[in-house]
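Colleagues,

Please find the record for the two-part complex below.
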Amino acid sequence: MASKNTTAANTLWQRQPKCNAEFFALTYGALVSELLRDLESASAVTAELDRMGHSIGIRCVEEVLAKQPANASAPQTFPATADLCVTTLRMLFGVSTDVQQVSDTVYKLQMSENPLMQFVEVPDSLKDSLEYSQLLAGLLRGLLEVLQLDVSVAASSSSGSSSDGCEITVTLQQVLQEGAGDEYHEE
Amino acid sequence: MASKNTTAANTLWQRQPKCNAEFFALTYGALVSELLRDLESASAVTAELDRMGHSIGIRCVEEVLAKQPANASAPQTFPATADLCVTTLRMLFGVSTDVQQVSDTVYKLQMSENPLMQFVEVPDSLKDSLEYSQLLAGLLRGLLEVLQLDVSVAASSSSGSSSDGCEITVTLQQVLQEGAGDEYHEE
């Protein structure tokens, strides 16, 4: 099952239109810098990155589900949504992600590297309050919200280096509507 | 000569770390929206995108030159820098770009599609004042500045659609220091 998913995710990644990841990282850095200039606190910047990611996630979800292999079904349980998150991160960056199921309502996604954090050094003064990669957390939150799952998502890349990867913790708050993800398979 | 350059550019593109171009376009859109919220006018947003691109271009130039084939030489004349711009755009997006040499001090770069403008519809009210793709113009300006060429660069994608491409006009203002690009080949 895992290897089937991995193959499907690889194929998906190959089909994606691409741009230069380093250029993306630099542009994302410009976005974060802009927010740091404009907003009052680093935690407000984190919240804004989360909001932007959420908005992107909602726009991405149909794309992600539409590009799944025809025989894939929408995840029917919360833990099963971890695979969708792994596929999504693969579609965005081509990276592989490990899943650790902590409980029925919590899983952790461990990206082996953090493509957002290339060329980035978060100053010590911001490390505690700024979550640089929160865009990804917001994105997964938006994605799962469309599947009627209210989740909280926290990114953790506080070591502040690309090669240290990024851990994303997804926690189920409530199911908004049972089986609502099914509708995405009717087309 | 053109085909040799094209092959080299293709090889360069294949070697680049990649991320999803649609995700990039959405994130860039979030950046532009943020600037539109924060700044007073659309022309101030254009200027800020130009500034960000300039800063990215300065960071990119060593990378671009370092990744050139070993036998490539730094452009010795202003018109010859068009090839470097073409290679750069290829490295960033994998797109092909046509060059039109207008005069000894002006050339136009025509990208067949505009990767920044996917999913984007610039409102009519902003079309005259906002240059959505100015980040690219600023980037090329930064790149050429490091080669000691003071240029003005204008992007034009006012039709507001990805498939309409993007025209970038590069105009030489002055040569800051003759032959200064040579130093990038000493390493």
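The mean pLDDT of chain B is 86.

Comments are welcome before we finalize the supplementary table.
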